[in-house]
Oxidoreductase (Paucilactobacillus hokkaidonensis JCM 18461), 293 residues
Amino acid sequence: MHNEALEPKIKLNNDIEIPVLGLGVWKASNAKAATAVSMAISHGYVLIDTAKQYGNELGVGNGIQDGLKVAGKNRDDLFITTKVYSGDQGYQPSIDAIDGQLERLQTDHVDLLLMHWPVNDLYNETWRGMEQIYHAGKARAIGVCNFDVERLTDLLKNASVTPAINQIEFNPRIHQQAVVDLCRSKGIQIEAWSPLGNGKLLELPLLNNIAVAHKKTSAQVILRWEVQSNVIVIPKSVHEDRIAENADIFDFSLSADEMDQINQLNEEHHSRWYDDYQWYGNPDGDPNRIMQA
């Protein structure tokens, strides 16, 4: 299936283009990630987002190969993102880790490499390592995740390359306006993880009412609101019907009034935040899982 809407359409600060919607694979096993990625590519997805922390880079790499074969496409048709694992932070460790990540993903470069979390006392050195990875051509763009105003301001004072993206928790109930404002003032694109709020927003009456008016689902309304807010979205799913549904958001628009109504849902209540994530290892499981098929 060819879907022009899923092809690159936002230009990053280094002039490369990224799709506004992609597939996330957090919590998916290697097997499920492989299937989901292959299905997503067959449905026209270009952007695939994974991380070493997820333990499924190997599955994503297999899914990419399968999906490209079925779709008759090649590597350059995709936009692949992975992330620097917090256990690999620091200048040399981040450089040393990238080759293994590329091997699992079966590619010689990623289109975007993100720092997964701002590990205190290490993130500036990690960024310096990521700049080397970028200059070596192993990542076409580099960025960060989960950086607040304080840490991002500090990083920008030390960085030679301005991050292309800050991937943060963002959805109708979590706007992080101060972070968004800083990023936009510096030309840093916002990308949303948990764009659907872990599914907890789907039953909100306001969203249901707007969805009915447009003959869409609440999930599609949320994703449309985010895209119209100039935010890249990477909803996670391993179900083909949901993968297809999430992509079907480019044939309608929300009115200014509908956008404003959804804006009013903001509560700034994070599901998890970096005060709980100043870690150096793997808080979510066995690090050996990274290499398991």
Q: What stands out?
A: The longest strand covers residues 79-84. Residues 57-71 form the longest helix (15 residues). Strands lie at 10-11, 17-18, 22-24, 47-49, 79-84, 112-115, 142-145, 165-169, 189-193, 232-233. Confidence is low (pLDDT under 50) at residues 278-293.
